[in-house]
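User: Hello, can you help with two protein structures?

Assistant: Certainly.
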Amino acid sequence: MPDPARLAAYDVLRAVRTEDAYANLVLPQQLRAHALSGRDAAFATELASGTLRRRATWDAVIDACLTGKVQPRVRDVVRLGVHQLLAMRVGDHAAVSTSVDLARARTGPRSGGLVNAVLRKVSTRDLDGWLDEVAPDPATDPVGHLAVVHSHPRWVVEELARALGDERAEELPVLLAADNDAPAVVLVARPGLATRDELPGEPTSFSPYGVRLAGGDPGAVPAVAEGRAGVQDEGSQLVALAVAGASVEGRDERWLDLCAGPGGKAALLGALAHERGATLTANEPQPHRADLVRRSLRVVPGAPEVTSYDGREGPWAPATFDRVLVDAPCSGLGALRRRPEARWRKQPTDLDELVPLQRALLTRALELVRPGGVVVYATCSPVLAETVEVVEGVLEGRDDVRRGETRQLWPHEHGTDAMSWSVLTRW
């Protein structure tokens, strides 16, 4: 039988392929199912997540070594083997022999010979050698070259290039490479409930409440287990801090998180609101995600209200909130580091549905905020159609809104997800 770590990694890939599972959700289940911890859990995590991220690169290499078609379940085994050979410190013999064992256990005894033959051929070159053969010529097809070398769909490469702009074009390969790096686990100390000093790890560079966890299970940290702290990317923390830090005129009593699921920003906002004597309403239209928001807010003082309405409608009266966050549903292309399968599921046509929704939510938020209050429009995407173009489209022809701070974070520059936000003041 193959070792449990490789079995767990394969079972993650199979669930992602056949059940549309999310790797970040199924991976912990598989680690528990195979009783993995410590180094074995870390190995399985890198093997599964890394293979999913680098799928396009590994498929190009595999296809160069094949003379015919291969069943999807067998290709999963070969992808895992290629990742070990070309991206992990696993010896050639170990990578090949354990992959053959895995194939026989999960896909049938006759697949072992094919897996052995393909991986032995892959092992004859290092990664750079294979990229020289399988990647398109950068002079004639620069987008295709980057798509294979850095394992991104072509359209995503094009959108990220557009978001960076001509003046930062040379950063594109670095950004794409950063999307393939495993992200650090970042914790947040919720104000009034925990302090950053009681959390293990190195303080974050920009958020005064965060730490980068050095390793281990974040759920084993007492403050996290008790809900006084949580797991939250630093970029997400900074969005909440932008909402709380924006200047308002007059009262500052009612805050609204219009799209609150799964609840990380809402928990930080709720804690900050309570410290100022304000109250938070956290709205999430999907009931199961609203339950996650309630769980995140369970120990936040001030009893933040959790509602479940379509944010474009809802029962709230116009001009009644002092601060509104619109963390809009988006393509999520800013979080490709932590959602390894997401890049292969997103399509450019997704924007056709997302952009009208984003514009409608921002329009509604500007109706709900009072004159002198602020709206922060945020996405976990750097795609211009979802960020500045949404804001510009909504503000066109309006003279009652002033645009303030606009920020775009980048994983290669800030070490965060590529969060984007704009601060808008209603007049």
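That covers the first. Now for the second protein you mentioned:
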Amino acid sequence: MGITAKELAARLNLSATAVSMALNGKPGVSTETRALVIREAEKAGYDFSRLSMKKNASGDIYCIICRAHNAILNYTPIFSELTDGLEQECRKNGYHLKTFQLYEKVDDLQKYIEELRISQCAGVILLGTEVSASVCHEFLQLSVPVILLDSYFDSADCSCVLINNAQGAYLATSYLIDRCGRQPGHLCSSYRITNFRERTHGFHRAVREHGMSTAKSIIHELSPSIEGAFSDMLEIIDSGTPLAGAYFADNDLIAIGAIKALKLRGYKVPEDIAIAGFDNISEGRVIDPALTTIDVPRKFMGQTAAAQLIREIQTPVLHSVKIEVSTTLIKRFSV
């Protein structure tokens, strides 16, 4: 069996990054170093077909699930649908999908990326729900295409696939106002990510377009989990804080926790207070009353991200793209 790039780097006393750049014809190493690496690789029987895998319809695609605080990604059913779509599209096109989890505060990011450099990685899909811009930029230093899934950064020069969060929030808030005729409040997440900030923009736009002032909307910050939102909402109710007659919640977990707290304290939903969520998780169908929410085609998002990455692997692109997937309002009994 021929030598691996990692073994070659150790033999030549070079970094894995330098060996990867030399073998892949990337800038960043001297002409002498590049010639040395290729010469020694040929002598040691390095399998150069591994390099062509990155350009042909074969090889490995890595899905990196990057966790920061685990506040959002802790709810796994949502993200299993995304990875199902990724895997289906990869398999259809002859690629093998490898999924790994990276804990930003614990794992050695640089070591992680070095391992990717010397692997048979053809491209990376970075699940960016909790990822920071700085971590995203580290992955963009790889010599393979990178797609950012479920997030977007103006400073990141890579293609991305994400939900049209503002559109979904706008649909839910407009429906609340039209049905209830009341100034809606906002149950926003205490942990702020890009998705939630965009949902806030959609909420504000709907309020303003209905002739209301966003300054008059009652806002409560709740933990983005059922248990956390339940406890936080109970505390808000018991403190005597004024409540709105209708609420848009940043996600279904917050909405469900708030409904449980309101019902425990004797409020009727939707007669006293109407609530709409976002994500269309299964728990929202079985809670009483069933939750009005925004549906996200997560499997389709995964398929779209994988398809875009494969296009960029096979035909390098000059410009990155931002693909926003539209959402759908699901009308149930909480409004």
